[in-house]
Design goal:
elongated, 12 strands, 3-stranded antiparallel sheet
Length: 441
């Protein structure tokens, strides 16, 4: 099996493109086949080195290594031009100056379901001859066979007047030259497939097996875009997701395993993935589900590995103690600093939290807490827990009415890791200093 991922470098790698790359990679790795990366860079204005780097960076971060490439489509332009000349020489293609209006006029005479046929001219764009007889069948693993009667197909334009190839010719030739056996891509390419197969048939070659993936939608059922949140691999990385969680989640968008499991490690995905189980229906990308899955993966890392990833993500070192008391409360790497950054940066400034929990009653409670904590000799979780529960009992208070004033004094907000663990990590001196500062405000 030889598969390819062939993105156009027009910006950051879209989540839908990442899923296409993942499915091709899983097929290659599961079959012992070859994964080819081809950069379709014929749009010279948008195919900048920076945009190419976006693709390479995203694939590298996702862990989707390729066996051949990157192959740049523009590097094969002379080959494409040679194919165009061959098709002209063999009378399988012809030049035509026909415009879109000419095509409409032809159909007005011959009927809308009649494919356009032009007359050969001395100049103009190059159109591929489509025979009136016969039919072309597209073999699609996901959607089944689709047959197109030639009489209904227009003679497609395959090259500009200067001989430079257009997309459908270039793609067909590139897939042929690379020996691609399976073309796995988004369903937005379905309309291109008959034209590419016709090019291959004109060359006397067999078409690969196709698999057109359903598009990704947002939770609202509309095409996935920025309005739904993250739209690219780089967006997901910046939001603190793990590549292994993204691989797992993207694999399940349109594909399901017979065991109906949700958490499937990458090595298991490689073993189980099959195109035959990919759905025809659009899949919905729900970032809340991805957050949940990412949280599962975070907690499976273990404290040491999670610390290493968080230190790389935040650019801070010495985070292990804070990570140990926060890991059960975060779902992404980006959740960590808003939750525990106060340990290093000092209390945040949240006027609403201060107003709610450090009013007259809260300050009175905090004063009693300060006295109780000041008497604690062994500054550890069991001793701190016992001291604060004595305060709760003595004041006949609810735990939150004691804990929340402490939390606001320490963190500046009403959200933090566990209160006993936070006190222990901050240490006696720093904890009491922050409480004293809150009492003096």
């Amino acid at each position: 099996m030889r598969v390819r991922f062939a993105p156009s470098p027009t910006g950051q790698l879209h989540i839908g493109g990442a899923r296409t790359a993942l499915y091709n990679w899983l097929l290659a790795r599961g079959s012992g086949g070859t994964f080819v990366l081809r950069i379709e860079d014929t749009d010279r204005e948008r195919s900048t080195p920076e945009n190419v780097e976006h693709i390479l960076d995203a694939l590298d971060w996702l862990g989707l290594d390729f066996d051949e490439g990157p192959i740049f489509q523009t590097a094969s332009e002379e080959r494409h031009r040679a194919v165009v000349r061959r098709l002209l020489d063999e009378d399988r293609a012809y030049r035509s100056t026909a415009t879109g209006d000419d095509v409409k006029a032809y159909k007005a005479i011959h009927g809308d379901d009649r494919g356009f046929r032009g007359e050969p001219e001395a100049q103009g764009a190059v159109r591929l001859r489509v025979p009136d007889d016969g039919e072309t069948t597209i073999r699609d693993v996901i959607r089944g066979d689709t047959t197109f009667r030639h009489v209904h197909l227009d003679d497609p334009v395959i090259a500009r007047a200067d001989g430079s190839p257009l997309y459908n010719l270039a793609v067909a030739v590139d897939d042929l030259d690379a020996g691609i056996t399976h073309v796995v891509r988004g369903e937005d390419h379905i309309s291109n497939t008959p034209k590419q197969v016709l090019v291959l048939e004109a060359l006397g070659e067999r078409a690969p097996l196709y698999a057109h993936l359903p598009l990704l939608h947002g939770p609202d059922g509309k095409k996935l875009s920025k309005r739904h949140g993250a739209a690219s691999v780089q967006d997901l990385r910046a939001a603190g997701y793990l590549p292994e969680a993204i691989r797992n989640y993207l694999a399940l968008l349109g594909w399901g395993d017979a065991d109906d499991e949700t958490i499937i490690p990458t090595d298991e995905l490689v073993r189980r993935f099959a195109l035959e189980r990919v759905s025809k229906n659009p899949a919905r990308f729900d970032e809340q589900k991805l957050r949940w899955m990412n949280g599962r993966y975070l907690r499976e890392l273990g404290t040491d590995e999670l610390t290493a990833r968080l230190e790389a993500f935040t650019g801070h070192s010495g985070l292990r103690e804070a990570v140990a008391i926060s890991e059960e409360k975060i779902q992404t790497l980006a959740d960590f600093w808003p939750l525990a950054g106060f340990i290093f940066d000092g209390p945040a400034d949240d006027p609403k939290a201060r107003e709610k929990w450090l009013g007259e009653d809260g300050r009175a409670t905090l004063g009693v807490v300060r006295e109780a904590l000041g008497a604690v000799q062994d500054w550890n979780v069991p001793s701190l827990d016992a001291a604060l529960h004595r305060v709760i009992t003595a004041r006949e208070a609810k735990p939150r009415d004691v804990f929340q004033p402490i939390r606001v004094a320490l963190a500046g907000t009403a959200v933090s890791p566990g209160i006993f663990e936070t006190l222990e990590v901050l240490g006696r001196e720093q904890s009491l200093r922050r409480i004293d500062t809150a009492l003096q405000r």
